């Protein structure tokens, strides 16, 4: 008989790492073709293969764990380490953009007028929609904690309700931010102010969308009874990611929206 | 009391960064503390969501719909930079271009 005598997960051979790597190549070369040669084909192909890879890879993880039982305690510990390390890498990713912002705003150059915000820039009022955005994300942090505790206490109805509230708040944030992007009197092409503002908040917005998607997957999985009250790491990973997104926003709000105005 | 606890919880959560939820001694899939879900539900409905509602009201009260005054256009060289055309449209409009408040390098479009 072919039984393993250890608790680890020796994953079966899979094509998704290869398709993922290929999709990365298609996306990067596709961006080049789009920016410099006015062609979007490679990029579209890259985005398509990237989405397909993610869908199938993670579908396989769910199959291996929920349906085949490969995620023992030690496997789950490894996944925890992995998620923590990934989030840490994202922290450093954002740290770079905050560095850029502070580098430019702490010592504004003469061509900006020697002050910050630079001449001709009318920043958004931090006490209006940005403040609402802050409360929306903080509230979503509370509701996702409610969802987690409900899950741990085996309350199906409440965990679904709380997750739904969290996802709705995330979507509300995205809608508000999109509106702000259209309403702002400054654009990404408005010098270093525009660059730092839109790149930092833009990547944050992308992460909100990713986090909302992750939470939606958790919602669907909970509907399908995938989680137990004691084993629901997918949900915990989504919750960690969501809190991370919230914390990044708080730093953005305080640095760029508030101090930077 | 619940409000003070909520603020305390929120502050410790803010400091938590990328770590799993703070102050949960029985976390990581272990049995959840009895009744704690009830507290978070109460926090959600009595603190978090009302806070959002108040903030929405604040935005509504402060908004000036259909404001016609907009900053005068000054062709600063450090703004509206066009080192290379954008890869969409005519290459001269940003992705979230709003003709009412975003002038092109040559000025507002509707003037």
Automatic annotation (TrEMBL), chain A:
<feature type="transmembrane region" description="Helical">
    <location>
        <begin position="240"/>
        <end position="260"/>
    </location>
</feature>
<dbReference type="InterPro" id="IPR033945">
    <property type="entry name" value="Cyt_c_oxase_su3_dom"/>
</dbReference>
<keyword id="KW-0496">Mitochondrion</keyword>
<dbReference type="InterPro" id="IPR035973">
    <property type="entry name" value="Cyt_c_oxidase_su3-like_sf"/>
</dbReference>
<feature type="transmembrane region" description="Helical">
    <location>
        <begin position="16"/>
        <end position="35"/>
    </location>
</feature>
<dbReference type="InterPro" id="IPR024791">
    <property type="entry name" value="Cyt_c/ubiquinol_Oxase_su3"/>
</dbReference>
<feature type="transmembrane region" description="Helical">
    <location>
        <begin position="197"/>
        <end position="220"/>
    </location>
</feature>
<feature type="transmembrane region" description="Helical">
    <location>
        <begin position="131"/>
        <end position="148"/>
    </location>
</feature>
<keyword id="KW-0472">Membrane</keyword>
<comment type="function">
    <text>Component of the cytochrome c oxidase, the last enzyme in the mitochondrial electron transport chain which drives oxidative phosphorylation. The respiratory chain contains 3 multisubunit complexes succinate dehydrogenase (complex II, CII), ubiquinol-cytochrome c oxidoreductase (cytochrome b-c1 complex, complex III, CIII) and cytochrome c oxidase (complex IV, CIV), that cooperate to transfer electrons derived from NADH and succinate to molecular oxygen, creating an electrochemical gradient over the inner membrane that drives transmembrane transport and the ATP synthase.</text>
</comment>
<protein>
    <recommendedName>
        <fullName>Cytochrome c oxidase subunit 3</fullName>
    </recommendedName>
</protein>
<dbReference type="InterPro" id="IPR013833">
    <property type="entry name" value="Cyt_c_oxidase_su3_a-hlx"/>
</dbReference>
<dbReference type="Pfam" id="PF00510">
    <property type="entry name" value="COX3"/>
</dbReference>
<feature type="transmembrane region" description="Helical">
    <location>
        <begin position="79"/>
        <end position="102"/>
    </location>
</feature>
<keyword id="KW-1133">Transmembrane helix</keyword>
<keyword id="KW-0812">Transmembrane</keyword>
<comment type="similarity">
    <text>Belongs to the cytochrome c oxidase subunit 3 family.</text>
</comment>
<feature type="domain" description="Heme-copper oxidase subunit III family profile">
    <location>
        <begin position="4"/>
        <end position="261"/>
    </location>
</feature>
<dbReference type="InterPro" id="IPR000298">
    <property type="entry name" value="Cyt_c_oxidase-like_su3"/>
</dbReference>
<feature type="transmembrane region" description="Helical">
    <location>
        <begin position="160"/>
        <end position="177"/>
    </location>
</feature>
<keyword id="KW-1278">Translocase</keyword>
From TrEMBL, chain B:
<comment type="pathway">
    <text>Energy metabolism; oxidative phosphorylation.</text>
</comment>
<dbReference type="InterPro" id="IPR036418">
    <property type="entry name" value="Cyt_c_oxidase_su6a_sf"/>
</dbReference>
<keyword id="KW-1133">Transmembrane helix</keyword>
<comment type="similarity">
    <text>Belongs to the cytochrome c oxidase subunit 6A family.</text>
</comment>
<keyword id="KW-0472">Membrane</keyword>
<dbReference type="InterPro" id="IPR018507">
    <property type="entry name" value="Cyt_c_oxidase_su6a_CS"/>
</dbReference>
<keyword id="KW-0999">Mitochondrion inner membrane</keyword>
<dbReference type="InterPro" id="IPR001349">
    <property type="entry name" value="Cyt_c_oxidase_su6a"/>
</dbReference>
<keyword id="KW-0809">Transit peptide</keyword>
<keyword id="KW-0496">Mitochondrion</keyword>
<protein>
    <recommendedName>
        <fullName>Cytochrome c oxidase subunit</fullName>
    </recommendedName>
</protein>
<keyword id="KW-0812">Transmembrane</keyword>
<keyword id="KW-0560">Oxidoreductase</keyword>
<dbReference type="Pfam" id="PF02046">
    <property type="entry name" value="COX6A"/>
</dbReference>
